[in-house]
């Protein structure tokens, strides 16, 4: 958590229920309204469109189940979504929805097909992939789906706080973010939801937050989320440039010192990648060995999605991209962030050749 988020949380932790009409309630509500305004301004939304949730996962669920929870619904998605969307779409399918998928290329980017021209209950696509960092053509997807009246949910968890977001200009119906991705508290998410169409509430209760996400709002967490987002937005351009430079130095260093290695999507024609993402393929290396050897040096990296509950699973993203098995098994993702320094990159570059050599030996056993 950014220090500003810690301080803001502590400052407001004593506030009472923002739904109260008495003085303490009004005081809490004023802080909440300010948090909503800050988030709305930074993300190009109206304050009324800002819904605070308990995670990015919850924001994705509220939108998707709210648009496609009824049997007979039609959902369009992609094979590279984070489990928060992937498992939700699979569950909607089990409950009677028809599910269609847009294909993804070997470059990690979703192809736009005429599947989008047939109206659906919802189309859902991530803005940037959490594993490869590949940025997806969400603006084109929104325009095409909206053209036939299909609401579009954008999972922008990897993008908010890192790249500019303008909800109104994008035209999406709903958009999900997660506070811990930009230095806010863990267990805090944001759902931007247009005035219409509105997802049918998944939870029922006291009608807070337009009834879309009822329940007493945690004002301190909302304020800390807004404070973190404001600081992240203020440093966004400089930080993106700094991380891009560090990331490129890392990837160039790896490609020039470790044989038979490739960057998964970086450098491919027409593919934009998140500034802090370095995703590499070391064919013939054992994934678990790479992670454990790096961990022994204090270097924290992942093979699949770090969110898969601590279990190293084969990446469904790389499989969907059609990569051969030995490439999928030897995939490694480094994520650079605001605390990453040039010394960190040099430290990693100094140790990685040995790690990959050993992990390739392990795979031969
Ligand atoms: N969507 C994407 C693309 C993510 O990367 C993540 C988390 O890493 C999520 C959704 C889930 O967010 P949360 O961890 O806040 O539930």
From TrEMBL:
Record bears the keyword DNA-binding: no
Protein name: Cysteine desulfurase
Family membership noted in the UniProt record: Belongs to the class-V pyridoxal-phosphate-dependent aminotransferase family. NifS/IscS subfamily.
InterPro entries given in the database record: Aminotrans_V_dom (IPR000192), Cysteine_dSase (IPR016454), PyrdxlP-dep_Trfase (IPR015424), PyrdxlP-dep_Trfase_major (IPR015421), PyrdxlP-dep_Trfase_small (IPR015422)
Cofactor dependence: pyridoxal 5'-phosphate
Keywords: Iron, Iron-sulfur, Metal-binding, Pyridoxal phosphate, Transferase
TM region positions: none
Chain ranges of the Aminotransferase class V domain: 20-347
One Pfam family of this chain: Aminotran_5
Sample GO molecular function, one term: metal ion binding
Species this protein is from: Corynebacterium appendicis CIP 107643
Highest taxon, organism lineage: Bacteria
Reaction it catalyzes: (sulfur carrier)-H + L-cysteine = (sulfur carrier)-SH + L-alanine
């Amino acid at each position: 958590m950014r220090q500003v988020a810690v301080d803001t949380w502590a400052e407001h932790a004593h506030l009472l229920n923002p739904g109260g009409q008495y003085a303490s309630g009004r005081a809490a509500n004023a802080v909440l309204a300010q948090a909503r305004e800050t988030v709305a301004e930074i993300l190009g939304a109206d304050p009324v469109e800002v819904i605070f949730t308990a995670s990015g996962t919850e924001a994705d669920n509220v939108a998707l189940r709210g648009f496609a929870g009824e049997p007979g619904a039609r959902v369009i998605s992609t094979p590279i979504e984070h489990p928060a969307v992937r498992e939700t779409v699979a569950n909607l399918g089990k409950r009677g929805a028809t599910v269609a998928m847009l294909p993804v290329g070997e470059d990690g980017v979703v192809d736009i097909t005429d599947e989008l021209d047939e109206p659906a209950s919802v189309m859902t696509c991530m803005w940037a992939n959490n594993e490869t960092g590949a940025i997806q053509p969400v603006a084109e997807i929104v325009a095409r789906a909206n053209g036939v009246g299909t609401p579009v949910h954008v999972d922008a968890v990897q993008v908010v706080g890192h790249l500019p977001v303008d909800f109104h200009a994008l035209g999406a119906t709903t958009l999900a973010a997660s506070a811990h991705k930009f230095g806010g508290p863990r267990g805090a998410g944001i759902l931007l939801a247009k005035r219409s169409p509105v997802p049918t509430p998944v939870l029922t209760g006291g009608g807070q937050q337009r009834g879309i996400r009822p329940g007493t709002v945690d004002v301190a967490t909302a304020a800390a989320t807004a404070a973190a987002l404001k600081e992240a937005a203020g440093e966004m351009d400089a930080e993106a440039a700094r991380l891009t430079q560090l990331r490129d130095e890392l990837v160039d260093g790896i490609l020039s010192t470790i044989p038979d290695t490739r960057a998964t999507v970086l450098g491919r024609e027409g593919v934009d990648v998140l500034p802090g993402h370095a995703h590499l393929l070391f064919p013939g290396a054992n994934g678990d060995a790479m992670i454990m050897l790096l961990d022994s040096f204090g270097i924290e990296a992942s093979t699949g999605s770090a969110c898969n509950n601590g279990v190293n699973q084969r990446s469904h993203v790389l499989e969907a991209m059609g990569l051969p098995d030995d490439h999928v098994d030897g995939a490694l993702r480094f994520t650079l962030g605001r605390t990453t320094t040039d010394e960190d990159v040099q430290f990693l570059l100094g140790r990685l050749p040995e790690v990959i050599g050993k992990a390739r030996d392990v795979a031969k056993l």
